[in-house]
Amino acid sequence: MGNRLVSLGSNGTDGRVLDVLSGGSRSFALSGLVRKGARLTPSVDGSALLLTGGHDASGVHDDVWKLDLAGDGVVSQRLVADSASPDPRHASRALLGYAAGGLPVSVGSATDGIGLSRRIVGTTGWRAEECLPPSLIGEAVVASSDLWVGAGAELTSEGGPASGASLAGARVGVGARLGTITSGGALSIGVGAQVAGNAIAAGDIDSRGTISGLTQARTPTGLEGLGCFDVQFPQGNRPAVRVAPGRTTSLAPGAYSKLSVLPRGKVALSSGTYYFDEIESLPLSRIQLDTSSGAVRIYVRSKLKLFGDLEHPADAAGQLLIGYLGNEKVTLVRPLAGTLVAPRATVQLANWESHAFNGAFLAYRVEVLPFITVNYVPFNGEYLP
Fold it and tell me: pTM for this one?
């Protein structure tokens, strides 16, 4: 904390503050807060320490305390109470993000060490793990394997060029335009391509285009994968839905086995969360989305075939999330305004209409075909149910 080094004693009842400039030190006591194995982390604004976890005679804890080192004493305030069943994983992770009443954030609290969990000040219970990892938020296209941005393709946003990222290799084609490009492997940039931001790669960079920002080869990227995106599908009886030509069917949020929409058929979905084993919308079919009461989240287990139209206002792109957990390739030949997350599949963007793709596309492999434009719009909601 600035020029102060703070440590807890081994018994968890006291600690010491060392001024690294003057060499002076003082001790302090944690009255009523006796913990062994607790962790201390400075708040982002440097105004206090956050203490989390540890154990005492009553068992393990995953609550969060703020410690203000005022004068010669310590003023402690509990920000978040213990969960009903405290989880030791939370207690073993450092906290960050608390400043002026913000959210405490536990880093790497998922079982595989990927992702985030958050607790709101003044409440009980850890929220569901946040996906996506913060290193991937703000990217128009993300691939956990290879990323290809084809010749003449463009990644853009309301504020200017948008960025792309790959945890493996990335290729930017001739004349393509985008913001920052980050690659966890090698990075190639074609002739005439324009990178309006930085070009960063863990491997070598072969650039024959223009890079406005920094060029950093063989540099750790800090990118995290899509491993946290995993959905538990409801069990039990789940009806199949088949929409015949010329018919319209409205589906309430819930769990279904297969959705088949035949040519000239229409299915209407409303705000809420849907689970499907399979979705197949054939050419000339329509999936109509009503986002007037909030986001529509659609999770698909094994097959996703979108050859028909997804209908909702383009300015509601931040209100649609499609999570696909299968591994068959998804080729988007019709416009899509929303976020698609497919951690095990290849996603190919293949529609050349104006403003065809508004949202974000995150997959095992992403292929932006030549002269395709992606307009980045973030999803305004929780990625996991």
Answer: 0.71
Tell me if 188 is assigned to some domain.
no
Q: Could you list the residue range(s) of the whole structural domain that residue 66 is in?
A: 4-118
Residue 99 domain flag: yes
Residue 1: CB atoms within 10 A of its CB come to: 14
Question: Is residue 201, in this structure, part of any structural domain at all?
Answer: no
In a domain, 198, yes or no: no
> Into how many domains does the chain fold?
1
**What does the pLDDT look like over 97-137, one tens digit per residue?**
555 555 565 544 443 333 445 555 555 555 555 567 666 77
Q: What is the pLDDT of residues 186-239, one digit of tens each?
A: 999 999 999 999 999 999 999 999 999 999 999 988 887 888 788 989 988 899
